[in-house]
Design goal:
By secondary structure, the protein is an alpha+beta fold. The protein has a domain of 78 residues: SH3 type barrels, CATH 2.30.30. Helices cover 18% and strands 21% of the residues. The chain has 2 helices and 5 strands. InterPro entries: SNase_OB-fold_sf (IPR035437), Tudor (IPR002999), Tudor_domain_containing (IPR050621). This is Tudor domain-containing protein.
């Protein structure tokens, strides 16, 4: 589906047929280009970041970016059947060495080590619990 989506929106862009979403609201789905590879992906509006900027999450990968409103486009029905593929999760029973009673703070070094172990790698995960009030 990802290749088809990218090709579809690339063709619209080449033909000057892309029309930005109008009257957008938090939670709206659309498409945008990811800045790292300049490819089209499904996205969801998280927040408005000022007069003409929005924060979106790419729903199939979990990346977050700030975009200009006119860089967020309607999601065609062809690409709505597949549920979002990114799932927010956390490590079970993993805690930083030092934490105060009000917040958990991981060191930048620890965060980087974790990223090095999982980003762009195939990892096996097991769900052990779902927090109440979260989507599956």
């Amino acid at each position: 589906m990802q290749t088809e989506l990218h090709d579809y929106y690339n063709q619209l862009e080449v033909n000057n047929q892309l029309m930005p979403l109008e009257n957008i609201a938090i939670g709206d789905f659309g498409v945008a280009k990811y800045s790292e590879d300049n490819r089209w992906y499904r996205a969801r509006l998280i927040t408005c970041e000022g007069h003409d900027q929005i924060k979106i999450v790419f729903v199939d990968f979990g990346n977050i970016e700030i975009k200009l409103i006119h860089q967020f486009f309607p999601l065609h029905k062809l690409f709505t059947d597949l549920p979002a593929q990114a799932i927010g999760c956390s490590l079970s029973e993993a805690f930083p060495r030092s934490q105060n009673e009000h917040e958990v703070i991981w060191s930048e070094d620890t965060i980087q080590i974790f990223k090095d172990e999982v980003i762009d790698k195939v990892v096996e995960i097991h769900f052990v619990n779902q927090e109440e009030g979260t989507e599956q």
